Structure formats: structure tokens, C-alpha cells
């Protein structure tokens, strides 16, 4: 096998990075990407990442020609154009907008979950902003409720951009916010997640604390 031609700024705990890794596994492209691990928080940046992505966010992907692309949505779209199997992001039609909208719900759940995590671990406990934490947790609960009510059949039908994004969001909640106990309120989503968690792509990308 030839050497990897691309480099991914990577941290196994980031749900946004995990989406990219799952897509690489699902599309048989893991050998094309070298991983550059970075440890960062909003107040402890990775300086070499900042040179490639001024926003200092992971994932970012350096392509063979040196171009750097981000964020995770752009990277998924790029990588989905680099394999010959069925696209994991529908190329056109109403399916495209629906699947991307479900993926956007999942991304919003991840955003809120990471913000809660940062507030809890980076800020002095005496300064925790409870209204803000509650608002972010409410956002997570509303997003999950929508998926439970409207999207189970769609998630079950294809393991594509929507399903990958939701699975990675749930994996991150389990990792960082087990106190949310999301399964009780969302039993169909829990059953779906139990199934997809067994996929080789999900097992290979389990966050390592
Ligand atoms: C975490 O440790 O929870 C984390 C790490 C990197 C990006 C986002 C979250």
C-alpha cells in the first residue's frame, strides 16, 4: 500500500474528528490519511494547527497538494468524493437536504455537548453559569427528541452522513455526559445506537480516554 497522501489533525475524543474517521473506515480510505494527534482546548491551542486553521479547530485535513480544508462537514464532503462506492452524502435532490439537515441536528448536539464539557472542566466551579449549562442541555434534549420522533426509520435505512453524525454525537454524550441518561427518553434511538455501535467503523473509532 502507498504512503498516506493526506494528514488529519486528530484527537480521538472529538466527536467531529470521529465523524471523519468513521467515514474513512466506511469508505475504505483509512490508508490514505496520516493522523497528527493534537491535544487542545479553547484556552490551550495547538500552535501548528493554528497555522493551518486560524480558527484552531479540529478536524482539519491537509491534502496532498498542501491545501488545508475544514470544518468536519467540508472534510466529509471532500472525502465522499474520493471513493468509488455509494456516496454517503446524497449528491442531489430532497434526500441531500434531508440527510444534511439530520447531520446538522447531530452537529448541534455535539456543539452543545462540547460547550457543556468545557464549561464544566475549564471554568472554576464557583463561576459555572447554570442558566447557560441548562440551555445547552435543553438543546441536546430537544435535538434527541426530534431524532426519536421523526428520524428513526431514516437513520435505520442507511449508515450515511446523517447516521454517522448521530452515532458520533451519542457516543460523545455517553463519554462525557452519562448523567443525561438520554436512553430513557429516547428508547428507539437507544436501540438503533446499540446496533450501529457494533459496526467495525464505530468499534475502531471508540474514544480512548
Ligand atoms: C473532549 O475531551 O471532550 C474533547 C476533546 C477534543 C475536542 C472536543 C472535545
From TrEMBL:
**Occurrences of domain GST N-terminal (ranges):** 4-87
Pfam family of the protein (one): GST_N_3
UniProt xrefs under SUPFAM superfamilies: GST C-terminal domain-like (SSF47616), Thioredoxin-like (SSF52833)
Residue spans making up a coiled coil are: none
What GO cellular-component annotations does this UniProt entry give? cytoplasm
Among its keywords, does the record have Ribonucleoprotein? no
Keywords of the record, alphabetical order, are: Transferase
Domain of life per record: Bacteria
**GO molecular function terms listed in the Swiss-Prot or TrEMBL record:** transferase activity
Tell me the protein's name. Glutathione S-transferase
